[in-house]
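Re: export button greyed out
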Amino acid sequence: TQLLEQSPQFLSIQEGENLTVYCNSSSVFSSLQWYRQEPGEGPVLLVTVVTGGEVKKLKRLTFQFGDARKDSSLHITAAQPGDTGLYLCAGKGTSGTYKYIFGTGTRLKVLA
Amino acid sequence: GAGVSQSPSNKVTEKGKDVELRCDPISGHTALYWYRQSLGQGLEFLIYFQGNSAPDKSGLPSDRFSAERTGGSVSTLTIQRTQQEDSAVYLCASSLGRESYEQYFGPGTRLTVT
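Workaround output, generated via the alternate export path:
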């Protein structure tokens, strides 16, 4: 069974601080996605990474896919209150599967 | 354009009753997923539909759960004889197809079993 563990589970920081969220597995994924979810809404896709070692930037957010495609990180620079939400990673297996395995989630709160 | 819609947004039911949850995917999307999310945690895969292919039901937690997708569009998730542990947010997502990376999620149905 493929599992994705996220850390930390909860994070409360002050506006302007930097943070990193980790997504780890013992399994290899063909691609990995990061989503942000706000209360009462469904997750919204932030980024998809598909190549080992790939780095993608989305404004103040930097996403990295591990060289072995087993892990990923999300780094936020100068966090803003608008970054508050539940961050989820999701991996797609390598055997031609269409199923996504979602991580356990990281709840981020950015205080003004 | 119209996104994925789900109804009802909230459902409170008594233990033992049956419930039906509806999902209207984005027009033209051939893939449809159902997930369950408990207490703001990660998503648990339930079932996947792709075009006219047989659905992948491997994530359904028990035979009380079933889903269908009529005409390759609207989908209904049915939970029979609901139990308190079924309380969760049920999320539906659609995507262009098997090879598409992006899933578009609906707002979910919050189910509470009393």
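Chain B has a mean pLDDT of 92. The button fix ships in the next patch.
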